[in-house]
Amino acid sequence: MSTLRTWCHLESSAISLPPLISRHSIVKLSNLHGANNRNRILWWPRTQFVSFSVALQPIPLLLTAVFTLMANTHFSGDAELNSVDRSFTEIVVVRHGETEWNAEKRIQGHLDIDLNDVGRQQAVAVAERLSGESKISAIYSSDLKRALETAETIANRCGGLQVIQDQTLRERHLGDLQGLVYSEAPKIKTKAYEALQSRHTNVEIPGGGESLDQLYKRCTSSLQTIASKHRGERVVVVTHGGVIRALHQRAYTGSGQRAGRILNVSVNVLHLSDPDRWVIKSWGDVSHLNGAGYLDSGFGGDRTSG
């Protein structure tokens, strides 16, 4: 990043900008003397960032300013500024949009269900949000349609990236429970339901379902592999509620926000670095849905998965 510094003396309390600095800038003014030692920021439309410190001398009124001209990180397009610190990979984990089965509180697991109209609008909302943030280097997705369509919507808004499908990012296989309305499951598939509710993480669900331990191993290994391929980059991973809870379990250190309910198209940011260090940077962000009328929908994302 190139930096320009220039000194100027101003004999008036009115600050004027040197010729090389446009008024289409962000200007940060630091008063370094006197009781009111504070920073002020003067805002203009952002095409460049300018910071300068102003030292006030008592008499005569004389201002000495140092200007620092830097490319604005959001608008410059500078590849260096858009990259992530090379010591870690930033992974933005997104739950898929809503399906009709989510709305019906029907258990999906590995069954391949499309997004509904609400889910497609949710996907557009999260795609718009991510397209306005830092550069995305790659997009990975579960190969199940509800995740894949969400990922493709994001990809179309973020430069037309090719979505990389990965079966290891699928939801937990829920065996005999798949396809049942959750409230009916205890009567129809009692043993499978009891396995789902078990506090023991090694219990598999009858009908080919996975244990929580199997899910944890599968999806955390997948994310670690993705991180190792994209060190210093920002990657989006679109997956499912049960998977995201397992990823939170891997990263959670006992402080900060608990996993809670994983809402549709929630944004969860993790930093993965060597040696196998996971840090939660933000969790459960659905601010892009504010006012959209889709915030309260979406069954699943907890121990019921979906």
Characterize this entry briefly.
This protein has 306 residues and is an alpha/beta fold.
Notable traits:
306 residues, alpha/beta, 5-stranded mixed beta sheet, 25% helix, globular, disordered N terminus, phosphatase activity, His_Pase_superF_clade-1
- Mean pLDDT level: 78
Shape: globular
Please outline the major beta sheet: 6 strands, mixed
Distance between the termini: 45 Å
Instruction: Calculate Rg over CA atoms.
Output: 25 Å
Task: Provide the succession of SSEs.
Answer: EEEEEHEHHEHEHHHEHEE
Structural class per helix/strand content? alpha/beta
Total helical elements: 8
Total strands: 11
Family: Belongs to the phosphoglycerate mutase family.
Binding site for substrate: 95-102, 146
Pfam families: His_Phos_1 (PF00300)
Protein name: Phosphoglycerate mutase-like protein 4
Fold topology:
Layout: E1 4-10, E2 25-31, E3 39-43, E4 48-57, E5 62-70, H1 79-82, E6 88-95, H2 100-104, H3 117-131, E7 138-141, H4 145-157, E8 163-165, H5 185-188, H6 190-197, H7 212-229, E9 234-239, H8 241-251, E10 267-273, E11 277-285
Parallel strand pairs: 2-4, 6-9, 7-8, 7-9
Antiparallel strand pairs: 1-5, 2-3, 4-5, 6-10, 10-11
Helix pairs in contact: 3-4, 7-8
